[in-house]
Design a protein that fits this description.
This protein has a domain of about 120 residues: Aminopeptidase (3-Layer(aba) Sandwich). It is built from five helices and seven strands. A seven-stranded mixed beta sheet has the order 1-2-3-4-5-7-6, with helices on both faces. The radius of gyration is 17 Å and the shape is globular. By secondary structure, the protein is α+β, with helices and mostly antiparallel strands. The protein is about 30% helix and about 30% strand. The structure holds coenzyme A.
């Protein structure tokens, strides 16, 4: 029996894709819809309730530029051909941190939740990080949020909490919990292959 590959999976199964800058620009409407939905749901992801379509388009255009300049890796989760989830790896870090990446903006549209998309995105982000020689991941999330529980389930270590670090979309203060995840036993900084040289998944 031939096993299905990422390219032949039926559309009903979620598929994780790494986007080019051009792909990201084409996906701005879908990515904006996800971000706006998460903010409307009260998630503390960098923006306030007043955040609208235009702001979202501007934000994602900046992400697309960061993908093009190889400062960001952008992954999306597609269900039935529709983008319903996304996550980013920030890799444009100072020269003394070539071995790590910042995991950012894990976002799943409410229509796509509890189907394992976040877990798939996080696993794929770890694979991407390792392929780039980044063996330490760092993130922060709103203290007490559902996401905080998910990271612990996915093997991340809680480093600590900073009270009143950010605001919820409604303007109230929210603490941030910082997590890290070492991906490999090696502490030797690796020579990372250039992102552009690797094939898209
Ligand atoms: C957090 C979020 C990304 C989870 O997405 P999701 O696709 O629904 O998550 P998954 O279905 O992959 O679930 C992953 C794990 O978390 C658990 N989980 C998911 N949502 C949960 C919730 N609300 N409460 C408790 N556990 C939850 C699942 O049971 C699963 O655990 P398991 O695989 O061990 O059974 C999504 O709720 C979201 O986008 N929230 C708003 C944005 C946000 O806060 N992002 C984090 C920014 S740091």
């Amino acid at each position: 029996m031939t096993m299905p590959t990422k390219d032949t999976l039926p559309d009903t199964l979620p598929a994780i894709r790494r986007l080019t800058g051009e792909d990201a620009r084409a996906a701005i409407p879908a990515l904006s819809a996800i971000l706006i939905d998460c903010i409307a749901d009260g998630a503390s992801v960098g923006f306030l309730q007043s955040f609208g379509d235009k702001d979202a388009a501007t934000y994602w255009a900046g992400v697309a530029d960061a993908v093009t300049s190889l400062h960001t890796v952008l992954l999306v989760a597609k269900c039935d051909g529709e983008i319903l989830g996304t996550v980013q790896l920030g890799i444009g870090l100072p020269p003394n941190q070539p071995h790590r990446a910042d995991l950012k903006k894990l976002l799943v549209h409410r229509r796509g939740r509890r189907r394992g998309l976040a877990r798939l995105l996080m696993t794929a982000a770890e694979d991407e990080a390792l392929a780039l020689g980044r063996h330490l991941l760092v993130l922060d999330t709103a203290t007490g949020s559902p996401a905080e529980a998910i990271y612990a389930r996915l093997g991340w270590t809680r480093a600590g909490v900073i009270p009143d670090y950010a605001l919820f979309p409604d303007g109230s203060f929210c603490g941030s919990t910082f997590f890290y995840k070492p991906l490999a036993a090696s502490r030797t900084p690796l020579a990372a292959p250039p992102l552009a040289a690797r094939p898209l998944v």
